[in-house]
Structure formats: structure tokens, C-alpha cells
Amino acid sequence: MPNLLRLPRRARFLVSCFALSGGLMGCGHALPEIAGFDATAWRSDPYACRNRRLALYPPLLAAREHLYEARADDVNALLGQPDEEELRANTEKVYYYYLRPGTQCAPGHVRSAAPRISLRFGPLGTVTEVLFPMSE
Fold first, then answer.
1. What is the pLDDT of residues 49-101, one digit of tens each?
2. Domain 29-131 CATH assignment equals 3.30.420
């Protein structure tokens, strides 16, 4: 067995998940309550067309580290279904949540250049990358 302390943080996490769960079940963590973030208001503004999400952005940005290794179900419970979802190779996916109104608010929800949050999920179904626009 390799020395786990020499492995990168994410590798240690994966080894722990496999060791504790005997496979792929149970990896990831539940999301804690985010101070100052109104998840109900966020979820009630799909595609940011009501222009409410930008005011909710600062507390979510401050808590971005808590999003890493969260399970998709917990992200959905917090932020709602993604405005857009992209499926990638190797069972990876990306969730997008818009912050401002744009062309995504038109019928058909055309992809927009409006600022958005991106959450990438790895093959284990947990968040591996969190991208927030810096100019907001």
C-alpha cells in the first residue's frame, strides 16, 4: 500500500472513498449551509432571467471551496437543476448556472455569453472543478 500522505489531496480522497465504501458508493460529501446564501431565491430564478442571482453570488463565491467533492444530488438540492448541462467523455459532466439575463432567456434558451458558474463533475459524480467569473 502506498504512503497516502505523499499522494495529492484528490488522489487521497479517491483512495479513501474506495477503501471506505468498497467501490463507488458513498463518495463525496453533503454541502453545508452557506451563510447569507438564499438557495430558494436562487432556484426560483432559472437562467437568471429574473435578475436575482447576481445579488446571491457573493456568499456563493465565498463558499466555493465547499463545492469541491460535493455530490451532484447535493448540488441539485442547493442550486436546482442546472441551466445547461454538458456531457463529456469518461462519464464527466458540467453544470452551468447563469448569473445575469441574456439570450438564454429567449424562447428555446439559446446558449448565452452571459456570465455563469461552471461546476465540473468527475467520473465518481463529485465536483472536481469550480469556475466562477471573476468580473462579477
1. 999 999 999 999 999 999 999 999 999 999 999 999 999 888 899 999 999 99
2. no
Please give, one letter per residue, the 3-state secondary structure of the chain.
CCCHHHCCHHHHHHHHHHHHHCCCCCCCECCCCCCCCCHHHHHCCHHHCCCCHHHHHHHHHHCHHHHCCEEHHHHHHHHCCCCEEEECCCCCEEEEEECCCCHHHCCCCCCCCCCEEEEEECCCCEEEEEECCCCC
Contact criterion met (CB below 8 Å) for 118 and 131: yes
- Residue 101 and residue 66: Cα distance in Å, rounded? 26
Residue extents of the structural domains in the chain? 29-131
| Amino acid at residue number 80 | G
How far is the C-alpha of 118 from the C-alpha of 103, rounded, in Å? 18
Q: What is the pTM of this model?
A: 0.77
Q: What is the pLDDT of residue 18?
A: 45
